[in-house]
């Protein structure tokens, strides 16, 4: 039988341990709380964000969206950029299972008020409110919270966690090295090019080895769209990297976590309050990234004006989306989704007018926002399917022959001068001379560096591949 004095000593030691843990917890809480003040938390006008009345209420889940923005360096305005990365995150509150879905940036959707264009343009037009509204109304979702960051934030996180080991193909090495030049310039961080294996493999898309990459390299890896998988491969890389970073962060020391907060939080904008984030921290440790995919799952391509991804059809794709995000086997698309689904196919001329493959896999399919925008006028007095430019009149884009938005003839978007959007010069908005949107430097929207890989000095354009994450 233990002596009374020994029991008191044991209890005293336990009390000291508990007290130290409590003080340590308060210290960590205080350190995290003070760093959360560095995050940009603009007011999100939730009352302006619609949800389809017939959309299901997914109890037991929380849905967020992550936006990736190319701010083109210091001093740029986040709200003026396209969200070239859009990742819907579904969290099962009971199991901690996390699923991610990337919405392809060139997906042809209604971004608001019957304006059909590439999905990434919604953020440029109306910030996070309009981008979330687009996702809610096209996909029958109920998203109320978001986080936005540019690729400089990704570079910082990767470096603060000591880099990542990523398997690469020959094609990925080649294009990643090319992107690293721009990424390094914008972020101010260095890198060492990955040496390409010799001889060049017959299958350039096959994995050749696993490489330890730093922040500049991982960010550049996440931007690749040149490979055969195009944007689908790009978004898959992004989701893979997010999962790897999450797993690595969960086992990182406090010093690493605090450094990430110091370096990255000033680059992040979110609708979550400080209390929301603090409340999430204990549960995030138990989260598990179980699966991810891209949206739409079934698609074809069109070249209305610049290559777009067309869901075939939207309703069936949204059905599959709900099965994946929420395991909802009984979901039925709302009338709003059905209407948009029909409208999309009508605008592109029907599924029979679509292509199985994109006409080009190049990085820089530069197109102007207005040239890529279609406004549906349901109350047109002349016809039930009149498209018009809401900046001018009801007959814009009309070549006078009644063939507005004709996809089969030689006069699409023709103003009668023999070259689409030609103002009399050799290259202005000419889609036939190989120099579309040329700024006279020999490369489309090039900032003078001769590299068409991105970071042009222009403003945000819908579907502009220079403006990408």
Mean pLDDT over the full residue set: 77
Number of strands: 14
Sheet with the most strands, sense and barrel status: 6 strands, mixed
The CATH topology of the largest domain is given as Aminopeptidase
CATH homology group of the largest domain:
LCP protein
Strand numbers in spatial order across the main sheet: 9-6-1-2-3-10
Family: Belongs to the LytR/CpsA/Psr (LCP) family.
InterPro entries: LytR/CpsA/Psr_CW_biosynth (IPR050922), LytR_CpsA_psr (IPR004474)
Transmembrane segments: 12-30
Pfam family, one: LytR_cpsA_psr
Q: What characteristics describe this protein?
A:
16% strand, Aminopeptidase, six-stranded mixed beta sheet, transmembrane, 469 residues, alpha+beta, membrane, 2 domains, 10 helices, four-stranded antiparallel beta sheet, LytR_CpsA_psr
Q: How would you characterize this protein structure?
A:
Residues 82-250 form the Cell envelope-related transcriptional attenuator domain. This is LytR family transcriptional regulator. It holds the Pfam family LytR_cpsA_psr. Belongs to the LytR/CpsA/Psr (LCP) family. The chain crosses the membrane at residues 12-30. With 469 residues, the chain is an alpha+beta fold. The chain has two domains: 1-36; 43-341, Aminopeptidase (3-Layer(aba) Sandwich), CATH 3.40.630.190. Helix content is 34%, strand content 16%. It has helices at residues 4-36, 121-139, 151-160, 170-187, 215-223, 230-250, 254-264, 274-284, 314-326, 335-347, and strands spanning 61-69, 83-92, 97-103, 108-110, 115-118, 145-150, 164-169, 207-213, 269-270, 288-295, 299-302, 308-311, 374-377, 386-388. Strand 2 and strand 3 form a beta hairpin. Helix 4 packs across helix 5 (215-223). The longest helix is centred in the N-terminal third of the chain and has 33 residues, at 4-36. The N and C termini lie far apart (69 Å).
């Amino acid at each position: 039988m233990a002596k009374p004095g020994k029991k008191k000593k044991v209890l005293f030691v336990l009390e000291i341990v508990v007290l130290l843990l409590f003080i340590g917890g308060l210290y960590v809480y205080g350190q995290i709380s003070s760093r959360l003040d560095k995050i940009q938390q603009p007011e999100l006008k939730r009352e302006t964000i619609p949800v389809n009345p017939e959309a299901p209420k997914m109890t037991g889940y929380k849905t967020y969206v992550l936006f990736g923005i190319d701010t083109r360096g210091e001093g740029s305005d986040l709200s003026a950029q396209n969200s070239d990365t859009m990742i819907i995150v579904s969290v099962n509150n009971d199991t901690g299972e996390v699923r991610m879905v990337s919405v392809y940036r060139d997906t042809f959707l209604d971004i608001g008020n019957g304006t059909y264009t590439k999905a990434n343009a919604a953020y440029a037009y109306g910030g996070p409110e309009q981008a979330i509204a687009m996702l809610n109304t096209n996909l029958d979702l109920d998203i109320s919270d978001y986080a936005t960051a540019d690729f400089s934030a990704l570079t910082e996180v990767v470096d603060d966690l000591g880099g990542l080991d990523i398997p690469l193909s020959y094609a990925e090495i080649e294009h990643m090295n090319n992107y690293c030049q721009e990424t390094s310039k914008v972020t101010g961080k260095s890198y060492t090019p990955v040496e390409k294996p010799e001889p060049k493999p017959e299958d350039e898309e096959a994995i050749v080895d696993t490489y330890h990459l730093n922040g500049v390299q991982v960010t550049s890896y996440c931007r690749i769209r040149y490979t055969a998988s195009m944007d689908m491969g790009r978004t898959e890389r992004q989701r893979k990297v997010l999962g790897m970073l999450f797993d690595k962060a969960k086992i990182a020391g406090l010093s690493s976590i605090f450094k990430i907060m110091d370096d990255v939080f000033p680059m992040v904008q979110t609708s979550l309050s400080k209390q929301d984030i603090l409340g999430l921290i204990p549960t995030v440790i138990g989260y598990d990234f179980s699966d991810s995919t891209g949206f739409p799952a079934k698609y074809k391509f069109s070249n209305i004006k610049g290559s777009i991804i067309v869901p075939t059809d939207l309703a069936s794709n949204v059905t599959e989306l709900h099965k994946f995000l929420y395991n909802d086997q009984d979901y039925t698309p709302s009338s709003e989704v059905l209407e948009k689904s029909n409208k999309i196919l009508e605008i592109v001329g029907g599924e029979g007018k679509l292509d199985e493959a994109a006409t080009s896999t190049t990085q820089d399919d530069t197109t102007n926002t207005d040239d890529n925008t279609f406004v549906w006028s349901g109350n047109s007095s002349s016809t039930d399917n009149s498209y018009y430019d809401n900046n001018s009149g009801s007959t814009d884009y009309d070549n006078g022959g009644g063939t507005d938005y004709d996809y089969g003839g030689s006069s699409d978007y023709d103003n009668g001068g023999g070259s689409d959007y030609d103002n009399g010069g050799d290259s202005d908005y000419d889609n036939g001379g190989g120099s579309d949107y040329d700024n006279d430097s020999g490369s489309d929207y090039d900032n003078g560096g001769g590299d068409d890989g991105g970071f042009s000095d222009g403003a945000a354009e819908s579907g502009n591949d220079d403006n990408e994450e």
